[in-house]
């Protein structure tokens, strides 16, 4: 059985407070975008080990046991005693990009196992399992535009459609550690709450919809801020870093001819439609 885990972008990201458990409360709107990995599971009844992970495409750091798809499988295996599986993961989503690629793989693995083995787990329960694997994971269960609070796992509906808009996502060859990015933040209440800013026309987001990580990440990695500037220069209606970086996305009007930009070598570039 095959699935295509996609990415999220953050439309606005306010880090509002540090929690006693060391994590941070935040406010953001998650929006799914069709930049995808491919994930397949096959039952392997006679295998002498519970899982075998075959990786293809971009390399990811770490041992197979550290891979979030394996953690997702082991979590479900503990609850439901699953048969051994062969896992094929084709990585196309860049890591350390703030696009939630690993989180998406994990959430899609939970959904795949639930569907394939007819486990009957509700979406709400899958969200609870997902949240134990990563703060971003729960979003990918329902995988539709949503306002998120808490550590990113408390959801409220949001009236927002960017259908027809075009997107460019650029990721320079710079790795930003999510943990380190959070440690450099001074949490505060935003001047324009994300939920309010998002209701305004997209043309006004430039001045009201802020990603708090930009203030600390741009000075450390000026190339990321330069990419954002360039996207505006090239006609983006709104541009922002996603998550804790290092990718930057630009939203362009429907019908706009997306620019051909030579970003240089080692730069990942995605163009698509919302
Ligand atoms: C920055 C975002 O991408 C915004 O969507 C997410 O908040 C990051 O979520 P994530 O990558 O799933 O994060 P995790 O893998 O759960 O956590 C990585 C590290 O980031 C920090 N962390 C993460 C999420 C959060 N709400 N507060 C935090 O302080 C913690 O130090 C944690 O050890
Ligand atoms: N399936 C996976 N895909 C990518 N990275 C994974 C995976 N499993 C574990 N990881 C580890 O997680 C780290 C971050 O991966 P991810 O692709 O989620 O980054 P990110 O874009 O920073 O995500 P986020 O938006 O959640 O901060 C990688 O350095 C890698 O070691």
TrEMBL record:
It comes from the Bacteria. Pathway: Isoprenoid biosynthesis; isopentenyl diphosphate biosynthesis via DXP pathway; isopentenyl diphosphate from 1-deoxy-D-xylulose 5-phosphate: step 3/6. PANTHER family: 4-DIPHOSPHOCYTIDYL-2-C-METHYL-D-ERYTHRITOL KINASE, CHLOROPLASTIC. Residues 67-141 form the GHMP kinase N-terminal domain. This is 4-diphosphocytidyl-2-C-methyl-D-erythritol kinase. The active site is at residues 8, 136. Its EC number is 2.7.1.148. HAMAP family: IspE (MF_00061). It catalyses: 4-CDP-2-C-methyl-D-erythritol + ATP = 4-CDP-2-C-methyl-D-erythritol 2-phosphate + ADP + H(+). Keywords: ATP-binding, Isoprene biosynthesis, Kinase, Nucleotide-binding, Transferase. GO terms for molecular function: 4-(cytidine 5'-diphospho)-2-C-methyl-D-erythritol kinase activity. Residues 203-252 form the GHMP kinase C-terminal domain. ATP binds at residues 94-104. Pfam families: GHMP_kinases_C (PF08544), GHMP_kinases_N (PF00288). Catalyzes the phosphorylation of the position 2 hydroxy group of 4-diphosphocytidyl-2C-methyl-D-erythritol. The keyword Chaperone does not apply. Belongs to the GHMP kinase family. IspE subfamily.
């Amino acid at each position: 059985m095959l699935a295509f885990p996609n990415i999220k972008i953050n439309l606005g990201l306010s880090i509002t407070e540090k929690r006693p458990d060391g994590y941070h409360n935040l406010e953001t709107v998650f929006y799914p975008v069709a930049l995808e990995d491919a994930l397949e599971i096959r039952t392997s009844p006679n295998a002498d080990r519970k899982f075998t992970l075959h990786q293809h495409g971009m390399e990811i750091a770490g041992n197979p046991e550290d891979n979030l798809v394996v953690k997702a499988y082991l979590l479900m295996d503990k609850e439901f005693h699953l048969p051994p599986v062969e896992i094929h993961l084709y990585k196309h989503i860049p890591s350390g990009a703030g696009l939630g690629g690993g989180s998406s793989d994990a959430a899609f693995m939970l959904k795949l196992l639930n569907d394939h083995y007819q486990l009957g787990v509700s979406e709400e329960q899958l969200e609870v399992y997902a949240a134990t694997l990563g703060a971003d994971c729960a979003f990918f269960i329902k995988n539709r535009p949503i306002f998120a609070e808490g550590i990113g796992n408390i959801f409220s509906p949001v009236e927002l459609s960017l259908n027809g808009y075009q997107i460019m996502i650029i990721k320079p060859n710079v790795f930003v550690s999510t943990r380190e990015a959070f440690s450099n933040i001074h949490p505060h209440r935003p001047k324009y709450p994300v939920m309010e800013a998002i209701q305004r026309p997209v043309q006004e987001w430039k001045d009201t919809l802020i990603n708090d990580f930009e203030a600390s990440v741009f000075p450390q990695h000026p190339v990321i801020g330069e990419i954002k500037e360039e996207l505006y220069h090239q006609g983006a209606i709104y541009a922002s870093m996603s998550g804790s970086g290092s990718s930057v996305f630009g939203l362009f009007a429907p019908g706009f001819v997306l620019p051909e930009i030579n970003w240089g070598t080692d730069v990942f570039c995605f163009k698509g439609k919302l």
